[in-house]
Amino acid sequence: MEVSTDKPNKIKINRPPKSAYFLLVGIFAISYAVIYIAIILRVHFLSGGSENTAMSETAANLIFAFALLMLLVALYLYIAFSRNELLFTLKVPAALMTVFTIVITANIFVAYLNPYAMLVSLTALLLLPYTKRRDAFAFNVFACLISSFTLIDNKTNMFAVVSFTIISGALSGAISVYAFPSSLTRMMSVLRAFVTVVSAVAMYAVFLSVYSFDVRPLQENFLYIGVSAAAQMLLAIFIEPIIESAFNITTDFKLVELTNHKAPLIHRLIVEAPGTFNHSLAVANFAEICASAIGENPFFARACAYYHDVGKLNNAMYFTENQAGYNPHDELLPEVSAEIIRQHTEDGYALCMENRIPEEIARVAIEHHGTLPITYFYNKAKSLTDSEVDMNEYRYHGDTPRGKIAAIIMICDSAEAAIRAMDNPDGERVDKLLKNMIDERLRLGQFDNCAITVQELNAVRAAIVGAYGGLFHKRIKYDNAARKDSAHV
How many angstroms separate the Cα of 401 from the Cα of each of 176, 251, 331, 378? Predict the structure, then answer.
């Protein structure tokens, strides 16, 4: 049974603000300046200026400047048109370009010692935890191209080392990015680094031996190749957490830390709002399964579910799951109650930001109810007056979901509460409930600003129905004798 909607082909994809593209230009301009200055310093001071080249120093500088500009323009166009979702928050592009610039700058000076000592795989090793595979691969290739270009002059024959650096960098980068799962444990990260650098050493060995049909070039440069390989592995292990912390990026390792029950906000939920915490756990179980069903990151989905309701900490007893018989809303006007209820989305965002929770997780706190009406208090207001009641006064003031995970949390949050409230729920009734819930949110335009498709919404619905039996199964009722026996099991 498919989800029906009046506008299946009208889902709009929210675009980054135009200012983000100009800010990205600024980031690239800084990277360009740093790399170009490093090139000039190396050519002028370490390489002896124009004495090592048949062309003038000015001409060489102009060629370097133009080539570097064209390569960075190509990389900018890749991000701006193929990966523009990164521009919603510029911390990821800033982190990518920081790593990219540092590796190239290091290579420019390392190559003066020996070109075979360049860090050809380090960009891929460092970037994979922070972004998609294709980004890590693309940045590594561009880093190798720019690093190798600084070796070229028209007097010294550097054809072999330039070719080997680019080929080895591209192939070892591909191994690093595509030969291992994107969700890595710490040990798997170490293994990935080890396999990557070993493959780079093996490629250099093959290329050097085949190129000259002689093992002497390999013997002469093996020490530099080996030191470079070891350095890349160690640098990848030590620099990853520094970049993660400096830019507050949500790697899988960071997400696991955020969902630890000793994390400050989670611990507060456990102590101050245990009902909300248990609700968040159930939502997290649903969300993780749904994310996996549509190819999204389950670790990210779980973290978003854990933090989506932290705003309830400010008024915990005004939410049903934390009440024990007494409901303070019984003594309040419906408009006051509605204001308290909807405030938890904004409070959640503020608490997340105060506790340095990554922006993309904090955004889900303010998006998981979108602009949906708070129906219970709207109907209560209508029952207390004969005049017209404005629905807009009883809506959430958040933003509609901007990403697929936020849409999943919106569905799972309502589904978990609704399923628990059902009498004798079964698979068919739960499926019907979810279908109506998703149809209503489509009709109200809650998914207009994210790229989730109707097919994916059906997959989410099916995943929740499938998970329902495992998460809300009914326990077998034992007689007294059985209970006594089971107590000893």
Answer: 33, 21, 33, 23
